[in-house]
Amino acid sequence: MQFGSKIMQNEKYSRGPRKVAVLLFKSFSNHCLANAIEPLRAANNLSGRNLYAWQYISLDGRPVASSSGLTVQSEGALSDHAGADYLFVMPSYDFHSHATVQCARALRAARSRFGTLVGMDTGSWLLASAGLLSGRKATIHWDELTNLSEKFPDVNVSDDRVVHDGNILSCGGTTTTFELILDLIERHHGAMLRLEVAALFMYGESRPLPALRSGSVAEAGMSLMRRSIETPLPVAELAAKLGLNRRSFGQRCMDRFGVGPRRLYLATRLREAKRLVEGTTMSVAEIATRCGYRDASAMTRAFRKEFDATPRDLRKRRTERIDPPLV
Prior knowledge:
Blueprint: E1 18-24, H1 30-47, E2 52-57, E3 64-65, E4 71-72, E5 84-90, H2 95-98, H3 101-110, E6 114-119, H4 123-129, E7 137-138, H5 145-151, E8 156-157, E9 162-165, E10 168-171, H6 174-189, H7 191-200, H8 209-213, H9 217-227, H10 235-241, H11 246-257, H12 261-279, H13 284-290, H14 296-307, H15 311-322
């Protein structure tokens, strides 16, 4: 049985796992790779569903060493891959040396087998070298923006952090890789899961209130909710902190997340309760207090309604998965 939050899920996004092939080159960035894959792994864990599946491949099918010496075992050659929803092209350093005739030929051949091509860090250079960015908008690591524009004048080079141009996506570096993946998670599974994944990695959580206000007001409101889980604030007070009245804040939340502030706050508190149930040995009573409930029975009722299981049931089943009984 899976325990994805009912509030956090939206059935209109449901489908089988999206498949990703990560094309690595010698001297790729570990940081870039982690920022591409860890959010997908987190989306799977947080939703309780297999939303994404990925493989690591190379041009020749051989293992690939990163810029810091970490070797990743390739699961095959690009030319032998049957195709997937996404092909992440990730050369990072030494990308000029990878822009060979062989690479261009392999990428052009792969175009028909992969739904969307994604140039990460300096990946757009290889896509442009293969003629796959002609007339398309794309970005690259900011150190190479001018060089890309001069070398490939038929490419609409942008200094945006992330660029979506139909079935060609691109981003400018390691941090923007994380932002691109968040965009994909939201497109596939809704804004709520995007915010859950971002919160897990504390993305944007350290910003002071004035900086929060400069972005999405609804996201800033959710950040305030996460900062005040143990002592929940009235919705009117949250709205006032954001310079809004209650009605306006409610509309912003509906527009961004499809639910009002009260439901959003409930989702945030129950998600934290589920995290504590699964990841700690705290008692249910202590978890209830940490999540803003006056008594454990009230939290248990809300928890069961949301996850179709009580905290104790969920903890027991998780323990059985980790430590199955001896036969």
